[in-house]
Amino acid sequence: MLSRRLCVIISILTLALLRTRAASAAAPQSEGLSWLVYGTTDGLAANSIWALAITPSGEVWAGTTAGVSRWDGARWRSYSPGHGLGDEWVSALATDRQGRVWAGTYGGGLSVWNGTEWRTLNRENSGLANDWVTALLVDDAGRLWVGTFGGGISVWDGNIWHTYNAANSVLPRDWITALAQDVRGAIWVGVAGKGVCTFGGVSDRCYDARHSGLGNDNVNALATTPDGRIWIGTDAGLYGYDPIAQTWWSWTDAWNLPHPRVRALAADSIGRLWVGTGRGVAVYDVAAGIWRAWTVWDGTQEPVIGALAVAPTGDIWAGTLSQGLARYGESGETPRPALHPVVLVHGWRGPESDRVEDSEFQFLARWLERDGIAAFYAEGIHPDNTLHENARRLQAAVAEAKAITGAESVDIIAFSMGGLNTRAYLESALYAGDVRLTFIMGTPHEGVQLWQTFLLHEIAHWSDEPSARELLPEHVALFNETHANNWQVPYYLVAGAVAADELPPLFGFLPPSDGLISARSAHALRGPMVRYITTKDLHAWSAESILLEIPSFLYPEATYRTHLRQALQDAEALAGSAVPPAWEPLPAENHSPLLSGILPPGQRITETLEIDQRGTVRIYARGQTDGLSLTLTTPDGVHIAPDASDDEDVSYFALAIANFESYVLTDTTPGTWQLHLEANDSLAEACGYAMYAVLDSPLRLDVTPNMQGQLDAPVLIQTTLRDGTQGVAAAQVSAEIYPARNAAITIPLHDDGQHADGAANDGHYANWWTPTGDGGYYPVFVTARGTYAGRVFGRGDEGVLVISPETASFGGEPRAEAVDADGDGQYEALQVEVPVRARQAGEYLLAARLMDAAGTEIARAVMPRELNVGEQRVTLSFAGDWIRRHGVDGPYHIEKLTLMDARSAAIKVDEMPGVTTKAYPWQAFAAESRIAGRP
After folding, report:
1. What is the per-residue pLDDT across 423-481, written as a single tens digit (0 to 9) for each?
2. Among positive and negative, which fits the CA dihedral 642, 646, 651, 657?
3. pLDDT tens digit string along 302-336?
4. What sign has the CA pseudo-torsion 508, 509, 512, 518?
5. Which H, E and C letters describe 310-374, residue by residue?
6. What is the rounded distance in angstroms from the CA atom of residue 395 to the CA atom of residue 402?
7. Which of 246, 473, 630, 708 sits between 20 and 30 A of 269, alpha carbons compared?
8. Helices 473-482 and 418-426 sit at what angle, rounded to 10 degrees?
9. Sign (positive or negative) of CA dihedral 803, 809, 815, 819
């Protein structure tokens, strides 16, 4: 029995050792070394790190659950499947002699970075045995060893793939967990649940808990040290083995390891072994036999280590499974990217609540917050406002974001029509020089062309919103004519070109688009600061798109990770291409007359559709609200419903978020079809509807575009009806014109040679109409019906009649002069003052272009201005910055002075040639004169 004195001594020593151990575990510092932690707020792709690799030049590569990140010593750059990675979960990394980086993914094969781009190898395009890669190793001979989960090991020697598995090698199973090479050149392999095996040594053999000193068969990590030992990390401790002496060592308790589960190992150049565990990092000085541990480095949670690596500088990198990546080295601060607050601008119709949580940005706002980026939602932007009214709301949102964060400028992410609202701010005198860059996603910069039939119907019957008319190509053309990105804010234009093979057959008939906005329209802007990004995104996500796994701009995270995130964290990381894609013009649809009406709850209506030729027909239906269902009856009496999945000639697609249904019918039977539309009896009120069919036929009706005129003056409405190049006569043709909602005026169109229609019976139909009232953008629907080639037909087409309201006009000659407001001898602005006579009060826009003497454009300027009835003078400013940057002496010419009524969708009311300035030298204009561009 031990004496009482000896027991006391033992107790004192035990307490001393525990105190020493506890102090060691609380993040000891030595020689000015410390841990620096990087996370998503620093630019890391994700805070869950599963693999690390360091190049000879010192670049650190981290494999995460959201892609791979590269540290170049100053900043992180991240790559995701959108950049070419096989999958977002990167589970293994290695570098080779050529400087390439190999990234094994969990389910997406093996990707390789050649310095400029990623290329992915998988079972289909290479000799890779399995796409679930768990371990990588480049051996001394330069061969790449790829451990897979379920396929054994694949080895690539630069020319040929070789596979080792349980059927042709010593491996007991095909589930590989780790790879390492010892000093003798032998390859060591961790096998899930079966211990370790060795290749290429004296003999190939395996070690497990039953037949060796390895105490646990669940091997997670392997490493070798210069003394020839192989180190094995398991679920139940660390084991060491000397292959020459055939001696085993083990460390399995808390005296040595912070946690028994060893997930990562790395050996440094001075003979120490670094051990990543389920409770932090330990280091073992092999020669001295001394352990040291760190279980906390941020003062909060104990990190679970997923990967370890040693840099050429001697720094230790430790990847955690939830807390980011830590570097142990010289003391200092973690470099942080200069993050700007982001203002989010929603699309055409935001949520009624006007809250980000209910908007299309509900996911994006969370991703920004995760990455340390403050997100602000632009409230008050509404379809009842005009573009420039919404621009003022955006101006206030930007000012609020700056005031709260103290930032001098913000970034903007705008979706759909939010891009036009954003441009109305950035490209007008409202702009305060406070936006660093903007992402504009799915915005119709040439207007809505793809579904213009439905848009015009909505304007004619359902909506008085000015924003609906602002989406028309005719309005957007005027906007583009008068606006420009003078301050050269970087525009990242994101266009969707959905992959038809991943979607219902309907999308195969559409031009490249996101399903709503054509890629051509989304990429229509040009300029030195415009970059172009093309994705496979749908315009908006919904329950249906999530169910079908269709990517969209704002959900899931792919577009954010691939294109937005890096640029928001690092403005030098340019996304997209500076070269605009060569999208083709949209082909004009050949379609039936528009069928529309109002359907009470619980009621059913039948419309007839004449199909005059066999071929493919697309039938589209849209409701004013959700709750309508469409079925069909063929001329033979066959009923077609959405569940006609067994009919290979019928495809049905619906999108509830747009109240939209469609059928694609191939090899249709000519004749009279019936379209049955039924309203759900749960609807609160009657629901408007519109339907039409796109026809596969050479017989087509085309309205002559660019219809415009003045109030109280005759305007010519023209159309042609042709079979190929042959005009078709004797049809009944009429035009419905909508000067206001639900206020149709119907006029007949003639082919008699007496109504400005050309010769009689040549297929040209026309008539004059005199507009009265308020002016604006009038939808025009033309319908042609008749019999041709023995069959009954019906055709429809649409257009927009632009009628100037004549509510204001220029009242005299303009004056132009340079302005030196602060008296420092340099001009802050060049101003033009124009007399204006307003007949009706409200908001107007004054726009002009500034040209040099050679006729080269310097800038465009737009001034929103409230006018009272009567005569007044309006001043428009061109900032000195713009002239100085252009670097050409005057005289300058201010031309295309345009006055627009902006009380609704802006429309031109007057214009004048302009004025020529004095011969100012360009050096006389001040730089950084942004204030001169504001009202």
Report:
1. 999 999 999 999 999 999 999 999 999 999 999 999 999 999 999 999 999 999 999 99
2. positive
3. 899 999 999 998 999 999 999 999 999 876 666 77
4. negative
5. ECCCCCEEEEECCCCEEEEEECCCCCCCCCCCEEEECCCCCCCCCCHHHCCCHHHHHHHHHCCCC
6. 11
7. 246
8. 20
9. negative
